[in-house]
Design a protein that fits this description.
The chain has 249 residues and is mostly helical. The protein has 2 domains: 109 residues, Winged helix-like DNA-binding domain superfamily/Winged helix DNA-binding domain (Arc Repressor Mutant, subunit A, Orthogonal Bundle); 128 residues, no CATH class. It is elongated, with a radius of gyration of 21 Å.
């Protein structure tokens, strides 16, 4: 890959916008943050900040990034620490690293490309699902208010979305919205330490509450409102678990 300005690497970005990128990074951190040392995390967070111009992509030089950790983070890291961090991030699936070269063939700075988050296979959350659906165009908060009728136009939902969640949500939302709603559920399942079975049950309960509220015209922002619902529902399951632990002692 030839050295060039950051704009020339836009095609490598996997994210719609900064919000989408930050959501994915948040999910990655829940799963892999413990794999990094404190110094490595400083370097990782600084690299993430260098991915604003082209979302999720950076060609900043290592020297530039390490200098920024000293000047802006007041926690200077070495070149070797940064390279150790990027190697670890690559092995975990967070990063793809492309080597670039100058016109004379000599090596230049790397291009760092962040991947979208996908839960690991061990979590066994989901199954690939092809869904036939007829929906209205949903932007932000729109939803069908009549009973849906499925047609023969297949839409494939990412394989990390729980099957039963996808089945129900497909009647009301488009694929991208379904995936975003389930990501919200997944993040909270980690925060509240729910099992995969509890995630399935609780997320299904939450999506039904959301649909009910939307039908009553009480929702202005789907993602924000769903986030509040999930917190309440998942908190209930967490309390039940704590009660059961005490009862079993």
């Amino acid at each position: 890959m030839k050295q060039n300005n950051i704009e020339s690497f836009k095609h490598l970005s996997q994210f719609k916008d900064i919000k989408d990128f930050n959501n994915n990074i948040e999910q990655w951190m829940i799963d892999i943050k413990s794999k990094f040392t404190k110094s490595e995390l400083v370097g990782l967070k600084r690299l993430i900040r260098f991915c604003a111009k082209v979302t999720g992509v950076s060609n900043a030089k290592i020297a530039t990034i390490t200098k920024a950790t000293h000047e802006l983070d007041q926690y200077a890291i070495s070149r070797s620490t940064f390279k150790r961090m990027t190697s670890k991030a690559q092995s975990l699936g967070l990063l793809v690293i492309h080597q670039t070269e100058r016109k004379n063939g000599s090596k230049s700075s790397n291009v760092y490309v962040f991947n979208r988050f996908e839960p690991s296979n061990q979590q066994q959350l989901n199954h690939a699902k092809t869904i036939n659906s007829q929906t209205t165009q949903i932007k932000d908060k729109e939803i069908r208010t009549e009973e849906p009728v499925r047609n023969d136009q297949p839409k494939v939902i990412s394989n990390f979305v729980n099957k039963s969640f996808a089945d129900y949500a497909a009647y009301f939302f488009q694929v991208e919205q379904i995936e975003e709603l389930f990501r919200i559920s997944y993040i909270h399942s980690k925060l509240f330490k729910l099992t995969s079975n509890e995630l399935e049950t609780a997320s299904n309960e939450a999506i039904r509450v959301l649909v009910s509220k939307i039908r009553k015209r009480k929702v202005k922002n789907v993602n924000g409102y769903f986030n509040g619902i999930v917190r309440k529902v998942f908190k209930k399951y967490q309390i039940i678990n704590l009660f059961n632990e005490v009862f079993e002692q």
